[in-house]
Design brief:
Length: 224
C-alpha cells in the first residue's frame, strides 16, 4: 500500500454548481467552502500530513470584480471564524503565492501563519494568487542572483514549497483535465485523479474512494 503524505486539490466547479443549483456563481463558492471543511476533517482522519488547496490563481483576477471580492470576503470570514479552531486542532496554515490582497486580508493571513507556525498534525497550504510558472521564474532568478549551481535540489530550495514534500496525489474536481499552472514542478510524479463531480458536490465518500484507489496503484517513479 502506498504511503500518502501529501494531497493537492484543484477545487474546480464552484461556479457551475452555483449557477445550476442556486442561480448564482457566488453561492457555489460558499458551498465550496463547506466541502473544504469536510475534506480537512477527512484528511486528518486519514493521517495525511499535508493538504494543498488551490483557492485562487494568478489568472483568477480576470474574473468580475464582484466575484473576486466575494471570494476574498469568504476567505476573510473563514480565517476570522475558524483560525482558533484550526489552531486547537494542531493545524498549521501556510500561504503559497504572493500576498497582494487588501491590507486587512494580508494581515489576517500573516497572523494566521504566525499563530499556527509550530503546529504539526496537518499542514494546510492555501494557494492564493499562486501561479507555478511565476514561482519557477522567481526561483531561477534567485539562483542566478546568488550564482548558485542550477540543480534540482537548489531549485527546490527556492520554491515556495521548500520543506514540503511533493504531492503524492492530485485531485481535480469539475470534470476538466488540466493542471491550470498549479505546482507544475512538484507534480512531476504525482498520481492524478480527475473527478467528474463539481467541487461543492464532492464529498467524504468520493475522497475516501480516491484515497483507496491511490493506495493500490503501483508507483514506479520511472523504474519498472
Ligand atoms: C474554482 O471553481 C474555484 C475557485 C476559483 C475558488 C475556490 C474557493 C473555494 C472552494 C472557497 C473558498 C476557499 C477557502 C479556503 C476560503 P470555478 O469558480 O472556476 O468553477 P467553474 O469552473 O464552474 O466556473
Amino acid at each position: 500500500m502506498n504511503p500518502l503524505n501529501h494531497v493537492a486539490i484543484i477545487m474546480d466547479g464552484n461556479g457551475r454548481w452555483g449557477l445550476k443549483y442556486r442561480n448564482s456563481r457566488n453561492a457555489g463558492h460558499k458551498a465550496g467552502l463547506d466541502t473544504v471543511e469536510t475534506i480537512i476533517k477527512t484528511t486528518i482522519e486519514n493521517k495525511i500530513k499535508f493538504l494543498t488547496l488551490f483557492a485562487f490563481s494568478t489568472e483568477n483576477w480576470k474574473r468580475p470584480k464582484k466575484e473576486v471580492n466575494y471570494l476574498f470576503n469568504l476567505l476573510e470570514n473563514f480565517l476570522v471564524n475558524k483560525i482558533e479552531d484550526l489552531h486547537k486542532q494542531n493545524i498549521k496554515l501556510k500561504v503559497l503565492g504572493s500576498k497582494k490582497f487588501s491590507p486587512k486580508l494580508n494581515k489576517l493571513l500573516n497572523n494566521s501563519e504566525k499563530k499556527t507556525f509550530k503546529n504539526n498534525k496537518l499542514q494546510i497550504n492555501l494557494a492564493l494568487n499562486y501561479g507555478s510558472k511565476s514561482e519557477l521564474i522567481s526561483a531561477f532568478k534567485r539562483l542566478k542572483k546568488n550564482k548558485s549551481i542550477i540543480s534540482e535540489k537548489n531549485l527546490e530550495k527556492n520554491l515556495q514549497t521548500q520543506n514540503i514534500p511533493d504531492p503524492d496525489l492530485l485531485i481535480r474536481t469539475g470534470n476538466t483535465k488540466r493542471l491550470s499552472n498549479f505546482l507544475l514542478w512538484q507534480l512531476a510524479y504525482s498520481e492524478i485523479f480527475f473527478e467528474k463531480k463539481l467541487w461543492p458536490a464532492f464529498n467524504k465518500k468520493d475522497y475516501k474512494r480516491i484515497i483507496r484507489e491511490f493506495r493500490n496503484i503501483k508507483r514506479n517513479f520511472g523504474k519498472i
